[in-house]
Amino acid sequence: MGFRKMYRNYLQNNLFMKLLLLFSLITVITIISFSYFMYHSMSQAAINRELDIQKKAMTNVNNYLGGKYDSAQSIVFGLYRDSSLAAGISFMLQHPFQEYVQHGLEQYNLGGNSTWNAGLQYFKNRVEDDEDIRSLMLYSVDQMTLYVLDRNRQLKIVPTNAAHSYIPEVMALDNKSVTLPNIWVREAAGQWDNHLYSIRTPINDKQTLKNIGHQIVYFSSDGIWKILRGDKEELKGTILVLSPDGGVLFDSSDQYYGKAYPFMEQVGSLYENSGSNQSGYVTKLTQSKGDFIVVGIIPKNELDATSKRIGSTIFMISAICIFFAILIPSLVVMNVSKRTNQIIRFTRKVKQGDLNARIPDVREDELGQISRSFNEMIEELNQYIDRVYKADIKQKHTELTALQARVNPHFLYNTLEVIRMRAISHGAHDVGEMIYSLSALFRSLVQQKKIYTLKDELEACRLYLELFQIRYKDKFTYTIEWDRKLAPTRIMKMSLQPVIENYIVHGLRSECTDNELHIRVKQTEEFLHVQVEDNGNGITPERLNELESFLQAEETEGESFGLRSINQRLKLLYGSRFGLKLNSEPGKGTVVDIWLPMDDGKEGYDV
Q1: pLDDT score for 427
Q2: DSSP code of residue 72
């Protein structure tokens, strides 16, 4: 019952309330729908952005570790490039260290190459060059001896007899991947830092190609943070570098160091790039050189937090928009309703006989005009009654005539013809010819034609060239070669004349007497090929490149009508196969090829 009463009181006979209610309903539905789609779009964009940031960081880590793998390999390759150095290291790995030192002294005393003793120095220098190297070790297969170089350039010699150590068995395994340091090698080197990864490279005798030892380099995984420094603030989730057996080489969360990664089976089942599951988004990159895996994990709760912030912001903005979208129209409708009720009230006063009632509304909108018309009607009604009552009926009619002057194009043509005849009568025949060409050219340009043909465009070009041939007299000649059968072909208006004008402005050499311009038109399959060739100043290669880029750029508002306008209009109307092509050599001239469609008279364009 209350709803029906409210409807009768506020809606049934209230047009403005109905309009306000309908507008508010449409506004609320529109804003809510837009907010939902905006939230969905922005949330997905935020997720993609986070994944892209992580993917970029993973790629940097992947490239960094690939570079470290190449760096470890380059140490051995650098050794091979120096024959004397390689010979010294080969001797050291195949003989006891004391014999190596003694042999080096003998070589030095005999005046031999000093690089024989520089083998260890070579490796010490490579350790110093890379701040991420924590230890560099050389293992001798024959002597079962491990030579350890640390960051302090100290050499430690560790016997690794098979009876007391598993290092010989470890070294016998073929492993060239980036892995965690072996526990036996760790113990021999005294390196127990969990933030290390190992790269092993075999060393072969340069002469016999026999494997005589191995190079083992321990790198600090903390060096990876240098690569991630730029993305650290925006990076979400965790980046892991894993060996094929699940060893954790790097962990940005510092959670899995020193133990096997527990979800290696799930990682192995993933393909390259991104995937998602119930817990989050996982991205996987593999590196063939070092046989390691870079894994990026972003938990869904972190992404959900970003989505919630976006949702809160959109909700707040939507609520404010709904509030003002309802408040402002409500105020406007209430004001209009108040003024409308005022007009109705004064109308009832007049109906009751009060001819002195006037609506106090001086605004210039529609309601103000209605009020003013109402007041004027009452004034005229009072005057009419007064005139009838006094028998003084008069009618006054005022007609205002606005005279508009139109410039008739025929007036301009006739005036130019009078000037031409005047010039001819005074012997200025060349002036008369120029005025005639100008008049014909002007008539051709301003004439509105539904069908504009090749013949019309070539005639406009001819008239334009006639003007300049008269001006330059014997300094300039032109030819137009075309098949008259192509005359009715419909083309775009002003598609050739600006090219001719461009030559006159930029290419014509006024100081020379051999200026020539050739226009050739022919049909090439479905194209109408127009070639404009001159022997003018030509264009430098640098300027030609600039013009090519200029032709492809979008035309700006207010720009002068020229080559770019023609090229853009042709491509917009007919497709990318059509347009302009410039070829030029400085001092020899320029060739402009224009490719137009052969429509066989099926369509016409007057643009």
Answers
A1: 58
A2: H
